[in-house]
Amino acid sequence: MTQSKVLVVDDEKNMCRAISSALSKTVRTIEACYTGLDALERIQSNNYDLVLLDYKMPGLDGLEVLKEIKALSPELIVIIMTAYATIDSAVQAMKMGAYDYVLKPFEAEEIRLCVDRALEYHWLLQENRNLRQQVENKYHLENMVGVSPQIQKIYEMVHKVANSSVTVLIQGESGTGKELIARALHTHSERRKYPFLGVNCSAIPSHLLESEFFGYEKGAFTGAYNQKKGYFEVTHRGTLFLDEISGMDASLQSKLLRVLQEKEILRIGGTQAIPVDVRIIAATNLDLTELIKRGQFREDLYYRLSVINISLPPLRERREDIPLLVRHFLNKFDPQQQIRQISPEVLEAFKTYPWPGNIRELENTVERMVLLSEGPLLEIKNLPEPIRGVLKLPSQSVPRILTYKEAKEQFEREFVTAALRRNKGNVTNAALETGIHRQNFYDKLNKYGIDPEDFK
Per DSSP, which regions of 295-399 are E strands? Predict the structure, then answer.
């Protein structure tokens, strides 16, 4: 039994009693009231985890009550109950912030599953917030998001080595947050009072590399009308972040090695060595050991750069961080909090999609969805086509009117499909997770023409 507190709002007392009975084994506290006004008064003076709200009631109807609830408590999960099986009314409720809707009449198991799924989502968000706060309190890494074991280890490493001056090599796929880690290392060190400069080594033309890094004296070459300081001098006592270090020209690799060894540079056209105190943090999305074997990267430079080696996991290997990252980006791109909720289908899509572009792709996706959203709810229709295509999500061309039988079958089909997806096509595990007998689970797969192989 969960420690949840649920409020049931329905003008039919028999319905309230039936729902309370259905939820009694899984919910600790269930309260009931019969009008919208009474519901709003209770919500103001109680901390509920979830509200089951009837769509059609005398006085304030369900949508009016929903609007007031979201004004009072934007995070409170609301499930709309309706006997009026129109998609329009349900979609309107979802846009106003309802988490889900159920069609009357429903069986006890249906309402229980719906509530359990909503509460699981609620506790997931709550747990992520708590873990996020623990991370911030322990490591003071306010701009880094994630609570997975892999990320926790990286937080700990950043915390340990930030205040030293050792070189750090950050490895990871594009979009995994390598520069964010580099900035965290700088921000949490004594060097934070001095410059941090990020340089993409593969983006600078080869004929400009030496002058950009080392600077030049006046008259050193045609067009050198004034003395110029290079990156090493500009970041003296600070941090120089060398992104895409694998793209660095071979001649510059040897010069960088000398700087790391001698702690001094020589401007182009200069004769006097200049001492520099710069922390070097390098990053790459390639395997430098493979480049060494091919003769494309200096082995001695590799060992100089990788005193500390931090490997960032791709987003697909830390899916438990996705809800927290989505919330973080929502706060970033929607500071007025006009979007108050993410539909469970969208969250499921986010957690299933492989994210080849990693966190950067997720960030861009959330930003796009916020811009295109037409209400307080992020819906499947807001998802970019590649994500919908990979997940084979159902199209939006659903019937406008559903019978009870159709609605039940639609829910059942989606329920077993989601279970298979979570368990990667393993029918035995999916049946155990959902509490459905394995043979019954197979019967449902045959009924709806679902092939477990599609999820492996």
Answer: 308-311, 341-342, 377-378
Instruction: Give the torsion sign (CA, 204, 208, 209, 212).
Output: negative
How many other CB atoms sit within 10 Å of the CB of residue 442?
14
pLDDT in tens, 64-88: 999 999 888 888 899 999 876 556 6
CA–CA distance, 175 with 356 (Å, rounded to integer) = 9
Give me the residues paired with residue 197 across strands: 240
What pLDDT was estimated at residue 405?
62
Q: In terms of pTM, does the model score above 0.85?
A: no
Which distant-in-sequence residues (6+ apart) come within 8 Å of 139 by Cβ?
155, 156, 158, 159
Helix-, strand-, coil-residue percentages of the chain, each rounded to 5:
50, 15, 35
Q: Using CA atoms, how far apart are residues 69 and 282, in angstroms rounded to an integer? A: 50
DSSP string, 416-430: HHHHHHHTTT-HHHH
Domains and CATH numbers, the chain: 1-142 (3.40.50.2300), 149-312 (3.40.50.300), 316-391 (1.10.8.60)
**Paired strand residues for 170:** 283, 310
Q: Which amino acid is at 314?
A: P
Query: Which residues of the chain fall below pLDDT 50?
Result: 137, 139, 393-400
The answer to whether 185 touches 162, Cβ cutoff 8 Å, is yes
Q: Do residues 265 and 273 lie in contact, with contact meaning Cβ atoms separated by under 8 Å?
A: yes
Among 177, 197, 187, 120, residue whose Cα is nearest residue 329: 177
Sequence-separated (6 or more) residues with CB below 8 Å from residue 44: 72
Residue 2 is predicted with a pLDDT of: 62
Whole-number pLDDT of residue 393: 44
β-bridge pairing 274-275 and 264-265:
antiparallel
Residue carrying structure tokens 């309370």: 20
Residues pairing with 196 in the sheet: 239
The token pair at 145 is 């998001």
- pLDDT for 308 equals 96
Could you check whether the bond before residue 105 is cis, i.e. omega within 30 degrees of 0? yes
* Per-position DSSP letters for 126-168, written without gaps between them: HHHHHHHHHHHHHH--TT----SHHHHHHHHHHHHHTTS---E
CB 99 within 8 A of CB 344: yes
Task: Read off the DSSP letter of residue 396.
Answer: S
- In whole angstroms, give the CA distance from residue 4 to residue 65: 21
